[in-house]
Amino acid sequence: MTQIHDLHGYCPLGCGQTLHLMPGGLIVCLNPECPDAGALQKIIGDPETGHIVTTEGLSSHTVHPLRERIGNQLLTCGINQAIEEAAQEGVIELNGTYRVTRDGTGWNWELAGLCSECGRRKYKGVPCGPCSRQDASDAAAADEAFAEGGQAVPLAEVAAESGL
């Protein structure tokens, strides 16, 4: 007889303490009203550990890594200041998606391409989540596919032309 184990934690969609470990290791919410019973499994199944920053004109949007939820690090994250500095220095482009990591020397900005297999966002050296492609030819194809999306313009150049 297979067992379902209760977990000590809360469904990320607000269902309460309804998480269970199913046979085979999947974590699901057993609340019948849950809009996505596999939400937690999807969240913890994402291998990304960097910030994902998307620039759209003079605006930007950031997806923070999950580790920043621990100890409220999200509230003191320096990515917004890093985005401003990178824009002023011309490091990031007007329209683009970046994987941003930090090491002992500062912030590292890696422009994303598109996976040639499934079309999702992909970075060099990081396996594509949905299809797990990582070979060198795929990275080159991803870069080429991204480049075909149009000419990128440094944010600093746009800001200067706009008088900002």
Q: Order the strands across the largest sheet as they lie in space.
A: 5-4-6-7
What is the domain total for the residues? 2
Termini, distance in Å? 67 Å
Tally of individual helices:
4
What is the count of β-strands?
9
How would the global form be characterised?
Answer: elongated
Structure description:
The strands form three sheets. This protein has a four-stranded antiparallel sheet with strand order 5-4-6-7, covered by helices on one side. The protein has four helices and nine strands. Residues 135-164 have low confidence and may be disordered. The chain folds into two domains: 5-44, no CATH class; 51-161, no CATH class. Strand 4 and strand 5 (59-63) form a beta hairpin. It is an alpha+beta fold and 164 residues long. The relative contact order is 0.12. It is elongated.
Give a brief outline of the structure.
This protein is of the alpha+beta class and 164 residues long. Helix content is 21%, strand content 23%. A hairpin with a 5-residue loop joins strand 2 (19-21) and strand 3.
Features:
elongated; 4-stranded antiparallel β-sheet; 23% strand; 21% helix; single chain; alpha+beta; 9 strands; 164 residues; 3-stranded antiparallel β-sheet; disordered C terminus
